[in-house]
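Checked the freezer inventory, then went back to the computational side. Two predictions to log before the end of the day. The first one is the construct we discussed on Monday; recording sequence and tokens without edits.
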Amino acid sequence: MGNIMCDYCQYLDLVETNRCRINFCKRCKAFTLTYQSCCAVFTQLELEKFHIALRVLTPSHYQHDFLGKRMAVIKKPEAPIGFCLSQDDTKELASAVAESLTHYDAYCATRRASRFLI
């Protein structure tokens, strides 16, 4: 999945803000999340689990001091690096992921409905 290079026309843009972009590749069936300078590729299940992980972070998870801010590190288990997030970053990213999953669900529902139209 990660080794396939797809044409840009294969991508469905789900969310785009100043600091976050989430799209879905129709060919690979993968979500690409870019937040600030970090990028990660997820399956649908992985993105849903990432969203849950973002939502369950508590103030005690923000233990890393980076440039005077308390940060939490969140990453996929097999990944050597992850996202280093402040509480504000976490809220912004969780909101963007939730919105992207909603848009993806709407896209899937539209595709299912279009099969019945003749």
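The second is the one RB wanted added to the comparison set:
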Amino acid sequence: MKDLTVKFWAQRGYYVINASRVGLSHSYGNFKSYDAAIAEAELLKAKFLTGAIVQPVAVTKCLDASDNFLASQMRRVEDDEISLAHFKDLKRGMDFVLAIIIDAFNKWA
């Protein structure tokens, strides 16, 4: 992997790191000296290569999302924002969608 580039941003009066290669901003940080920016760039690169920067993604299940959606719609029924017939139609549609299995998508259901 190439080293991360460090540039002086005249408008801010600071050195910034182009950290887009490691999934961060193209103008990462505010460093008063070039050496401090280079040291941080090397640290970011090392963290990226070892996997320390990557945040684990929490997998949300379709069924959980559907339950949350239907619960919010039930609150709307209780507040008389929508009718019970409309809620039942939404629920029927959600049940239909959740019953569909496309390729390996069923592991998220």
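For RB: Helices lie at 34-50, 62-78, 84-99. The chain has three helices and three strands. Let me know if you want it refolded.
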